[in-house]
Specification:
- The protein is of the alpha/beta class.
- It has a single domain (30-354), classed as 3-Layer(aba) Sandwich (Alkaline Phosphatase, subunit A), CATH 3.40.720.
- It contains 14 helices and 19 strands.
- It has helices at 5-13, 57-64, 79-88, 92-95, 111-117, 130-133, 159-173, 196-201, 215-221, 229-259, 292-295, 321-328, 415-428, 443-451, and strands spanning 32-38, 67-69, 72-73, 121-126, 143-144, 179-185, 192-193, 212-213, 266-272, 277-278, 284-285, 296-297, 299-302, 310-312, 316-317, 355-359, 377-381, 384-389, 392-397.
- A hairpin with a 2-residue loop joins strand 18 (384-389) and strand 19 (392-397).
- Helix 7 (159-173) packs parallel to helix 10 (229-259).
- The protein is globular, with a radius of gyration of 21 Å.
- The relative contact order is 0.19.
């Protein structure tokens, strides 16, 4: 087991960041970097992660060109917190963004800020407009898709429009190198319109999801007495249809980069922010839960300078994204990051096992489940998962029981539990005050979060 060093960095990170300084720009000779985050994308929805659906050919081809991390974890099953971890190298309890109503504090140094200081052109074009306009993830970007939210405008931007904005930005730069782009697609996130793909596969189904799945219908799906196995299968088909659409957009993006002569000099990272329950454990959706179906996400890196391809089985996390990109660019990382660099894996070297954490926070305390799951913490060590929720402790062997159907029996003599318990308790105590934390929701914010399923109904559909 790793030492306490990386966990103790969490305490250090509660202090103001020390930012790396660059006396001269390194961007001129550096490769471009593009991070594509796809919202609500389960790892096992992709062919490269074992899906037999055949609906992700573009992402599967991308994976063949780089290194695929088979066991990557999101720190929370919620959009803002997970993305904040990607771009700070910190866990939610440290960077302070613990649900979609919070704002990343300006004291936190982001990947974009470090690259901007190093001379990179930086642009962010996202589907979920509030992530940059309200969530604080605009920090360090010269150009962003949404500096502020416009009243009565759609909250979500189509992924095709994201690509268009990105191409327009790149065309304005010409052939200049040293560009950092963040693109974000929302297609796999609920609600689910009826796609052509799903329509062809729902022939004969006459249930409530025959025309798609609204947020209200998804809440009903979490009432076991009101859904059927056919409804669950229909929900899965609707989800696959949106994953297929995201894959089409990835193909469009790759083609656009190639046409502009940028594909061969761009480090491309594809990552999910969290997954989605598709009927497992009696629920659909995501949010304030710690099941593997919402925590395991795709994570792949294609570096044109590296000849390494293939799969990495060692557990990693999206919290590793920032330190990895900085390492690949030979840039100094800010002090206190809890993530680690995975760069060595792109050059054929093995990664050591490390500890990883995930957590739960429920926006509305009235929705909290019994026994303190409102502040539950999971610790991952090799193939074990230890969950501390209030006074309850649960241990799973994810190799023997990947579906978490049967917890292991705990004993007072359990050496593993006695080593993981204090780490979970220590992590749970890391709780800075973030901007927006404890603030009253405006009516506009309530409407946005309700429309996306983050308020009301079962927390598993957040």
């Amino acid at each position: 087991m790793m030492s306490l060093h990386r966990l103790l960095l969490g305490a250090l990170a509660l202090l103001p960041f020390l930012t790396s300084s660059c006396s001269e720009s390194r961007a001129a000779d550096a490769p471009n970097v593009l991070i594509l985050s796809i919202d609500t994308l389960r790892a096992d929805a992709l062919g490269c992660y074992g899906s037999q659906g055949g609906h992700t050919p573009n992402i599967d081809r991308l994976a063949e060109r780089g290194v695929l991390f088979q066991r990557a974890l999101a720190p929370m099953a919620t959009t803002f917190p997970s993305h904040s971890s990607m771009f700070t190298g910190l866990y939610p309890r440290v960077h302070g963004v613990r649900w979609n109503g919070h704002t990343l504090d300006e004291d936190r140094t982001t990947l974009a800020e470090v690259l901007d200081d190093a001379g990179f052109e930086t642009g962010a074009f996202v589907s979920y407009k509030a992530m940059v306009a309200r969530g604080g993830l605009h920090q360090g970007f010269d150009s962003v898709s949404d500096e502020k939210l416009v009243a009565d405008s759609p909250r979500i931007r189509d992924g095709g429009e994201v690509n268009r904005l990105a191409f327009e930005y790149l065309d304005g730069l010409g052939e200049r190198g040293g560009t950092f782009l963040w693109l974000h697609y929302f297609e796999p996130h609920s609600p689910y319109p009826l796609t052509d793909y799903a329509s062809e596969r729902l022939v004969g189904y006459e249930g409530p999801l025959a025309d798609g799945a609204s947020i209200d219908e998804i809440h009903v799906m979490n009432d076991k007495k009101r859904r059927t196995p056919a409804d669950v299968a229909a929900f899965q088909t609707l989800y696959d249809g949106r994953v297929r659409e995201a894959d089409r957009l990835v193909g469009e993006l790759i083609e656009g980069l190639e046409e502009r002569g940028r594909l061969d000099d761009t480090i491309l990272v594809l990552v999910g922010d969290h997954g989605q329950l598709l009927g497992e454990h009696g629920h659909v959706g995501h949010g304030a839960i710690l099941w593997q179906e919402v925590l395991e996400v795709p994570f792949m890196i294609v570096d044109p300078r590296s000849k390494a391809t293939g799969e990495v089985q060692t557990r990693v996390g999206v919290v590793d994204l920032m330190p990895t990109v900085l390492d690949l660019l030979s840039l100094e990382a800010p002090a206190g990051m809890q993530g680690r660099s995975l760069a060595r894996a792109l050059y054929g070297e093995a990664l050591e096992d490390e500890l990883y954490f995930a957590e739960v926070r429920i926006a509305d305390p009235k929705q909290a489940r019994p026994r303190g799951q409102n502040e539950a913490v999971a610790v991952f060590h090799e193939h074990h998962k230890f969950v501390l929720q209030g006074d309850e402790e649960v241990l799973y062997d994810l190799n023997a029981d990947p579906g978490e159907g049967q917890a292991l029996e705990l004993t007072l003599e359990s050496e593993l539990v006695n080593r993981l318990r204090p780490l979970a308790r220590f992590h749970k105590e890391l709780s800075p005050e973030a901007r927006g934390q404890g603030a009253e929701l405006t009516e506009a914010m309530k409407a946005e979060l309700e429309a996306l399923g983050y308020l009301g109904g079962e927390e598993a559909s957040e």
